[in-house]
Amino acid sequence: MTTPFQNYGQMPEDASQVSIPHHEPVGSAAQAPLLNPEQLRRFDGPWPTTGALGSQDFPENTQVRDSLAKVRAEVAKVVVGQDAAVTGLVVAMLAGGHVLLEGVPGLAKTLMVRTLAKAMDVDSKRIQFTPDLMPGDVTGSLIYDSRSAEFSFRPGPVFTNILLADEINRTPPKTQSALLEAMEERQVSVDGTPRALPDPFMVIATQNPVEYEGTYVLPEAQLDRFMVKLVLPLPERAQEIEIVARHAQGFSPSDLEGAGVGPVMSIEDLHVAREQVRRVEISRDVVGYIVDLVQATRTNPSLSLGVSPRGATALLATSRAWAWLSGRTFVTPDDVQALALPTLRHRIQVRAESRMEGVTPSSVIESVLRTVPVPR
User: Fold this and answer.
1) For 357, which of 139, 157, 229, 272 is 20 to 30 Å away at the CA?
2) In this structure, what are the phi and psi dihedrals at residue 15, rounded to the nearest 5 degrees?
3) How far apart, in whole angstroms, are the C-alpha atoms of residue 301 and residue 280?
4) Most distant CA pair in the chain: distance in Å?
5) Strands 202-207, 124-128: parallel, antiparallel or unpaired by DSSP?
């Protein structure tokens, strides 16, 4: 009788041998095949197929996964043609990470985040990042009360479940850095006092890839704190016809209730889903495959900066979330390949001379995926 691991090596009889925190080499190239472009798994947005490879699912998985599918359906009521971005947001939320959305103006980035928050029944706030925005405008500040002659803390918009940082690259690095502690430690420190943020807490930041006037490049330390970077494409003709037709019928982006959007999931459901994702097992060979991928970026001649260890742990987290959405209790190399591009492409820097030759972060990641041996 074959096991779900028949294509990737046998699963150990002892389950404690599966989730292994340290790395062992994947093996030689003779033992592990390379990928050609046609075999490369890409994250393109379709909801994963449940029960892939015939694995036994978590008993309580079906209900919470169905709730997430309903969330995706609610977003589709007002956002057309961005299924990949919506799926990416769900993956990041399951993995407990933050998201950087990149796209030209008018692609419904803000609307997508607002609808996601409403469908999940969580609190959300929006910050419009501008050149004159101060760190205290994000985190909150101490306010002097003349009646009590004392200072009291007034929380900023960061105290929410989903924080939409709109056009984050329009504010100077001083204000951008106000989010560093919040994104990494889920707390903010004001006047030396740390204050915990709500659970769950997620930053979804947007940026425009074509405008450079009045913008500031995000520092590497902040980019590395985003679990995934999702690039929104322009809609195809049929999708754009649907968008315009909805507006012709009276659709208003500011009236989500009028569009029939309502809560279909609770915070408790999200906590259950995240706990199940943490229980998804990963074999030693697949852990080694993740490490080999990120280390290959550090020696790539086209790059001046490779993926950090935080990037490796992020790829582990997103691969687990994708495996869970697929109805499996273990991670396969296919899961790693599917999430490698959105998880890693914003963590590398291409050399100037390589950029002149047309090399992009995405092309480097795809090249690494094709050349690093895949465990059997």
Assistant:
1) 229
2) -60, -25
3) 35
4) 77
5) unpaired
DSSP string, 151-213: EEEEE-TTSSSEEEEETGGGS-HHHHGGGHHHHHHSEEEETTEEEEPPSS-EEEEEE-SS--T
Regarding pTM above 0.85, the answer is no
Which amino acid would we find at residue 363?
S
**Closest to 84 (Cα-Cα) out of 272, 333, 339, 293:** 339
Count of all residues that appear for the chain in the document: 376
Neighbours of 178 (CB within 10 A): 19
Nearest to 94 by CA among 127, 118, 71: 71
Q: Is 87 left (phi over 0), alpha (psi -120 to 50) or beta?
A: alpha
Q: Is the dihedral of CA 307, 312, 316, 318 positive or negative?
A: negative
Q: Per-residue pLDDT tens for 124-181? A: 999 999 888 998 999 998 888 778 778 888 899 999 999 999 999 888 888 888 888 8
Burial 331-369 (b: 16+ CB within 10 A, else e): bbbbbbbbbbbbbbbbbbbbeeebeeeebebeebbbbbb
For 16, other C-beta atoms within 10 Å of its C-beta total 8
Contact 279, 5 (CB under 8 A): no
